[in-house]
Amino acid sequence: MKRIILGLMSLSTFLTSILFAQPSFANDPFSYESLNFPNRYIRHRNFNGYLEPTNSALDRKDATFKEDSGLADSNCTSFQSLNFPGRYLRHQNLRIVLSLNDGSNLFKKDATFCLRDGLYGQTGISFESYNFRGHFIRHKNFELWIDPSDGSDLFRKDATFYRSTPLWR
């Protein structure tokens, strides 16, 4: 009788973990759409980060990233290009660029972003810089930068994105 009860408890625990588990996004490819400019996605072009529409196959490839465990902190995320493996989005002089991982500590920190609830009304996702706390990826004139939040609605919208299905596999 004791074994049956323990077995039922284990089955119950197992089923609960399946039904209520949060999805894991690690290593899955995703694209990221702007909150305030629908149909514009985070992408790289000429090794710089932009927010642009994806009209061609190349655009869709450039707008698809793999969410890797953060290079500087496994509780955060690093965004590896799907079409340029080994290259990650990072900030350099506050500009978001696509760079080859050189293995340095500075690169690891610059290429690590912590996922936060969207800054605009708790919808979507915002990406806080690991080594410049309080600085978030945002678009300015459709270029991607990290900037400190000024608390304005415009900043909060510019720094909020939606995770979408990958535009390219």
Description:
The chain is α+β, with helices and mostly antiparallel strands. The protein has one domain (25-164): Trefoil (Acidic Fibroblast Growth Factor, subunit A). The chain is 22% helix and 38% strand. The protein has helices at residues 2-20, 57-62, 105-110, 153-158; strands at 29-34, 41-45, 48-52, 65-69, 77-81, 87-92, 95-100, 113-117, 125-129, 135-140, 143-148, 161-164. The strands form 5 sheets. It has a 4-stranded antiparallel sheet with strand order 5-4-1-12, with no helix packed on it. A hairpin with a 2-residue loop joins strand 2 and strand 3. The model is unreliable at 1-25 (pLDDT under 50).
The level of helicity is 10-25%
For the report, how would you describe the main beta sheet? Answer: 4 strands, antiparallel
Please state the oligomeric state of the protein chains shown: single chain
How would you spell out the order of helices and strands? HEEEHEEEEHEEEEHE
Distance between the termini: 51 Å
CATH architecture: Trefoil
Proportion of residues in extended strands:
35-45%
How many domains comprise the coordinates?
1
Q: Total strand count, please?
A: 12
What is this structure, in a nutshell?
The chain has 169 residues and is α+β, with helices and mostly antiparallel strands. 22% of the residues lie in helices and 38% in strands. The longest helix has 19 residues, at 2-20.
